[in-house]
């Protein structure tokens, strides 16, 4: 048996040497397990789920105001949600009734916006801490007010990127269909296939841009650009696959009679968790390759980078990052040694002062006792 195990290990080592992609996948999976990526994804899922319903409320509240100018806006948004979350919209118990939201658009919009802001900031904070743990960084210590203001800005930018990405994808698809009609290719199988591919490519590009922003800005620490790009592309591909499979995955969950009235909620939780896991895996992919980063090596050694160390290695690849880390630690040790010598000198000076003071007091006492003795002898 030991010989079999040894042979298997040698075979795996040989495969990893010959196929860098396989080695990268194994390193990514090990890193994901080391930082407990599943638990991190679960925390992000929780706050993401809390943010979903306020987001839908705000979206349909806005649609309620613009539907007069754009009659198709409500139908397009409903179709988009139903394509990913079948059965979520409707008039049955446990489903979101759009007519109710539209009829109370002012109140729903205000409440939804406030709730979305609170839950969105919590989700953003959970995602940031998850990425910082994924990259071996110590917990961030920052001014609470400055942090929240920055988070609001990041949340707005992130929401804007997602909105622009979705709008561009929808516009490109609808415009392409119109263009096919102009050239007489409407209904052509190959033309429709090319149109589908175009929409997917645009969606992939949009997802990749969003992930690049998240990975490069949210944690407050930069990985080498190549690593960020690789991780963002992988995440975009996986997320698009999950979008395509979303109808099937959520449909299987919601059709299970065991879940009863909670089927829609459970299906939504499952889908959001898959997306969060995809983001965590893509972050692990970024930090572990295409070449290992100092951050990945730090996690492997069960260590973390403090703020000063993280700032020194931010955006640097090996071996430059390692040299910077060694320089920071050497300077820190030098500063600590200087501070220690300074404290020791201060202690020694204080000891000398007390020593001289003590003997000065003794000398003074001796002089006074001597004077008293002289006075007594004279009497």
Automatic annotation (TrEMBL):
The keyword Aminoacyl-tRNA synthetase does not apply. The keyword Transcription does not apply. InterPro entries: Virul_fac_BrkB. Keywords: Cell membrane, Membrane, Transmembrane, Transmembrane helix. This is Membrane protein. It is found in: Cell membrane. It is a multi-pass membrane protein. NCBIfam families: yihY_not_rbn (TIGR00765). The chain crosses the membrane at residues 40-66, 106-124, 152-172, 192-216, 228-251, 257-276. One of its GO terms (cellular component) is plasma membrane. It comes from Motilibacter rhizosphaerae.
């Amino acid at each position: 048996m030991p010989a079999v195990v040894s042979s298997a290990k040698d075979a795996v080592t040989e495969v990893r040497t010959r196929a860098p992609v396989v080695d990268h996948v194994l390193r990514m999976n090990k890193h994901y397990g080391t930082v407990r990526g599943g638990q991190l994804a679960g925390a992000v899922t929780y706050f993401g789920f809390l943010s979903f319903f306020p987001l839908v409320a705000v979206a349909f509240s806005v649609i309620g105001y613009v539907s007069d100018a754009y009659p198709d806006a409500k139908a397009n948004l409903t179709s988009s949600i139903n394509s990913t979350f079948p059965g979520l919209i409707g008039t049955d118990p446990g489903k979101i009734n759009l007519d109710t939201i539209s009829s109370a658009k002012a109140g729903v919009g205000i409440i939804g916006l406030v709730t979305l802001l609170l839950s969105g900031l919590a989700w953003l904070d959970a995602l940031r801490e998850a990425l910082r743990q994924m990259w071996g960084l110590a917990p961030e210590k920052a001014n609470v007010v400055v942090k929240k203001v920055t988070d609001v800005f990041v949340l707005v930018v992130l929401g804007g990127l997602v909105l622009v990405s979705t709008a561009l994808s929808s516009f490109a698809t609808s415009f392409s269909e119109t263009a096919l009609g102009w050239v007489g290719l409407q209904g052509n199988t190959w033309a429709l296939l090319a149109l589908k591919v175009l929409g997917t490519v645009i969606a992939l590009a949009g997802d990749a841009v969003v992930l690049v922003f998240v990975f490069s800005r949210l944690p407050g620490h930069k990985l080498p650009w190549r690593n960020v790009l690789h991780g963002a592309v992988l995440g975009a591909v996986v997320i698009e696959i999950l979008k395509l499979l979303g109808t099937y995955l959520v449909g299987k969950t919601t059709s299970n009679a065991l879940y009863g009235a909670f089927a829609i909620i459970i299906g939504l939780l499952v889908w959001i968790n898959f997306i969060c896991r995809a983001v965590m895996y893509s972050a692990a992919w970024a930090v572990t390759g295409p070449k290992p980063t100092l951050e990945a090596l730090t996690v492997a050694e069960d260590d973390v980078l403090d703020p000063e160390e993280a700032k020194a290695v931010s955006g640097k690849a090996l071996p430059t990052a390692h040299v910077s880390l060694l320089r920071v630690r050497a300077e820190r040790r030098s500063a600590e040694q200087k501070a220690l010598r300074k404290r020791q000198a201060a202690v020694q000076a204080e000891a000398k002062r007390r020593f001289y003071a003590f003997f000065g007091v003794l000398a003074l006492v001796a002089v006074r006792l001597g004077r008293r003795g002289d006075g007594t002898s004279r009497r």
